[in-house]
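Protocol step 4 of 5: obtain the predicted structure for the target chain.
Materials: sequence only (see below). No template structures provided, no constraints applied. The aim of this step is simply to have a reference model before the mutagenesis design in step 5. Sequence pasted as it appears in the construct record:
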Amino acid sequence: MSILGIDIGTTGCKAVVFNRHGDILASQYKEHPLLHPNPGWTELDPNLVFKNIKNIIKTANQRLNKDKIKALAISSQGEAVMPVDRTGECLYNAIVTFDGRTGEQYQFWKEGLGKKTIFEITGMPLNPMYSINKIMWLKKNRRDIYKKTFKFLCFEDFVQMKFGANPTISYSLAARTSAFDVRKKEWSKTMLEQAGVEEGLLATCGPSAKVIGIVDKKISEELGLDNDVAVATGGHDQACGAYGAGIVKENVAMNAAGTSDVITVMLDKPYLNEIMLENNYACAPYVIPDKYTALTFNLTGGLLLKWYRDTFCYEETQLAKETGKNVYKIIDDSIYSKPVNLFILPHFVGSGTPTLDANSRGVIIGLDLETDKSKLSRAVLESNAYDLRYNLEKIESMGINVKKIFAIGGGANSPVWLQIKSNVLNKKMYTLMNSEAASLGAALLAGIAIGQYRDFKDAAITAVKQQDEFVPDKKILKFYEQRYKIYKEIYSANKSILHEISALN
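Step 4 output (structure tokens):
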């Protein structure tokens, strides 16, 4: 008997089948392209995403022997939302996290309820990216679509509905809409009334690890599944990733280096204080009952690395095709061996926390005639690490002492990057036997839902296993201290210019 975790990210989706001990039995991944129908707009085609999900599940399932899939759950990117009709057909593309069309809605909230009240209700810092803003934009600008909409769904509840289950958004993902009351764990009447959005247009809210239906017989036959595969509630991808990394207590953090570069810590209670508010840190329910998370993020972690690969690394990409080696491993192998005097402000789609400035832009500073690709490669990795440190220092100022950091996602496959992070953060970094923590977290939630584990702690102890340790190199710490001080000044020194650039037609 096996369990399936489906991880739906911004740039790709993954289906991973595990046994109860967390061993991977089969895995399949498929990228999906981001769409930019207008300048500053970013969308996904939900039909293509669902088609890819079906294909990867079918392929993964074909690789199984006797370990039939008995349950599945979904780890979903946040904020992305799409309108569907009663049959589950999409009426418009999914508008994803860093889509830039909702500035007017942001101003509405800023001038209305205000960031403090919104944060105290939703746990989300005021920002244009949240789902409720995208729904409001559709209501104003695509009234024809809004009138036809049965539900506005995020990717977790969208795929559930396509599988034939009652769409039920998990608490951790519902929080990312900024229309959810994180204390009461229900849709916020205040937020929805202000937005002019009826609660009936949203999915049912529910805790993680609950069975909400069975995969539709027609879908089961198409994918080669048994007819009794349970569909369970999963969670936001960062919450699932943290759980799949074994985060079941405070003072331990998860660093997810995927499309974004994120640090997530578990909290025993909701932190809705001034430090969280001032630094734009989200506080949301965790997948474990009555626990919460604090989340920091850089929007362009892996996304920046992908941009760098596509823009500067043609030779490395061709060599990867010829040799079968991973292109990022080839980049790592040729990286400059020492800290560089080159900095990248990774605000290519605006900044993440703590500034959360949608009008900021990327900067490359420190270029000279000795700058080559090896130095630029290292600057990409180091600058992301500086950004992580800046956020971690803010989190620790609340008395949350992070002692260990578990790395997951694609970035966890790079020993070079992990050692750089360990040196910059001056923290021990750990990898896991299974770096697919978001998929594992979702699968464990499915397993809990059907009774494969006694409880949440039992599942994590059974399935999550530590692998490599990266220890700060004391000889190099002083070099990073110098450079980190410079990095912290780059944004403030260039903010007004970056805003002028952003405003240009």
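Step 4 remarks: The chain has two domains: 2-260+437-463, 300-430+466-503. The chain has a mean pLDDT of 96.
Proceed to step 5.
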